[in-house]
Amino acid sequence: CGILDVQATCQDAIVTQQLLQEGFHRDLLMKVELGIMEEDIGGCTVAARIRLPPGIYVDPYELASLYQHNLTKEVLISDAVDVEAPEYLATDLVVLTYMKPDPQCSRCFRAALPVHGRYHRPAENNGEALVVLKSPEVLICCCDSRVSTECWKPSEVEAPCSGRNDYPCQWYSIKHKPVYEELILQVPVGLRQHNSLVCVVTLLSTVLCSSVILAAVCKYGHFS
C-alpha cells in the first residue's frame, strides 16, 4: 500500500523546447515544469542534459562570454568543440546546462542555449538539411534540501550542484513528458549543380583580392 501511495504522488515533469530565429544561428529555449510541490524545491538545482547531433554545435567561447556577463547560467560541455568542422566530420556532443527559475511559474525552470548549424554536404535538389534534436534529459540536484528522492532515478552525471561549489553532487534523472519528442532544425545547404559556378566565382574573387593587395603593397610598401 505504501508503494502505491508513493507511485501515486510521483508526477512527470513537462518539458517544452523551441528554436528561435532562422538560419545557422539559433537559440534553443527549454522550459521544465516539475511535478512536485513548490515548497519542496527551495534548495534544488535543475539542469538539462542535451545530446546535440553532428549537424549542430555550441560555441564554448560564446557561452563563456555570456556567463561572464551574467546573461546565462553555466554550461558544461563533455568534449572539445571544433567550431570549424563540417557536419560529416563532427560527432555528437553532450551539453549540461543549468536552468534558471521561471518568475512566471513557481515550479518551472528555463534556459536558453545558443546553438549553431554546421555546414553540410551539397544536396541534389533540396536546399535544406534536417537536423533532429531529441528531448533533453531533466536532472535535479537537491544537495541543500531534504526533499524525498523516491520518485527519481540516480544519474551518473558528475557535475557540481551549482556554481557555488566545485565538488560533484548526486544528480537524479526526472521522468518527464516532452510536449514534442523532437525538434527539426532546418539548415541551409548548397546545391550540387552550383558547384562549378561557386568554384569559378571563388577563384575569380581570390585572384581579384590578391591583385588588389599586391598592388597596394607595391604602391605603398617600403622596400630596403
Automatic annotation (TrEMBL):
It is a single-pass membrane protein. Keywords: Endoplasmic reticulum, Glycoprotein, GPI-anchor biosynthesis, Membrane, Transmembrane, Transmembrane helix. The chain crosses the membrane at residues 195-218. It comes from the Eukaryota. GO terms for cellular component: endoplasmic reticulum membrane. One of its GO terms (biological process) is GPI anchor biosynthetic process. It holds the Pfam family PIG-X. Pathway: Glycolipid biosynthesis; glycosylphosphatidylinositol-anchor biosynthesis. Signal peptide: none annotated. It is found in: Endoplasmic reticulum membrane. Coiled coil: none annotated. SMART domains: PIG-X. Belongs to the PIGX family. Stabilizing subunit of the glycosylphosphatidylinositol-mannosyltransferase I complex which catalyzes the transfer of the first mannose, via an alpha-1,4 bond from a dolichol-phosphate-mannose (Dol-P-Man) to the glucosaminyl acyl phosphatidylinositol (GlcN-(acyl)PI) intermediate to generate alpha-D-Man-(1->4)-alpha-D-GlcN-(1->6)-(1-radyl,2-acyl-sn-glycero-3-phospho)-2-acyl-inositol and participates in the sixth step of the glycosylphosphatidylinositol-anchor biosynthesis. Probably acts by stabilizing the mannosyltransferase PIGM. This is Phosphatidylinositol-glycan biosynthesis class X protein. It comes from Struthio camelus australis. The lineage of its organism: Eukaryota, Metazoa, Chordata, Craniata, Vertebrata.
